[in-house]
Amino acid sequence: MSDAKFPNSCPIPFSGGDIIVSAHGGGGRMTRKLIEEIFAPAFDNPLLRQLHDGAVFEGAGDRFAFATDSYVVQPLFFPGGDIGKLAVCGTVNDLAMCGARALYLSAGFILEEGLPIEQLKSIVNSMSRQASEAEVAIVTGDTKVVERRRGDGMFINTAGIGVVPEGVRISADRIERGDIVLLSGDVGRHGIAILAARGNLQMDMPVASDCAPLWRSVNSLIAGGIDVHFLRDLTRGGLATALIETAASARMDVSIAEAAIPLLEVVRGACELLGFDPLYLANEGRFIAIVRPEQADQALDSLRRIAGGVEPAIIGEVTGGEAGRLWLRSCIGIDRPLELLSGEQLPRIC
Amino acid sequence: MSDAKFPNSCPIPFSGGDIIVSAHGGGGRMTRKLIEEIFAPAFDNPLLRQLHDGAVFEGAGDRFAFATDSYVVQPLFFPGGDIGKLAVCGTVNDLAMCGARALYLSAGFILEEGLPIEQLKSIVNSMSRQASEAEVAIVTGDTKVVERRRGDGMFINTAGIGVVPEGVRISADRIERGDIVLLSGDVGRHGIAILAARGNLQMDMPVASDCAPLWRSVNSLIAGGIDVHFLRDLTRGGLATALIETAASARMDVSIAEAAIPLLEVVRGACELLGFDPLYLANEGRFIAIVRPEQADQALDSLRRIAGGVEPAIIGEVTGGEAGRLWLRSCIGIDRPLELLSGEQLPRIC
Question: Which residue has the higher pLDDT, B80 or B40?
Answer without folding.
Answer: B80
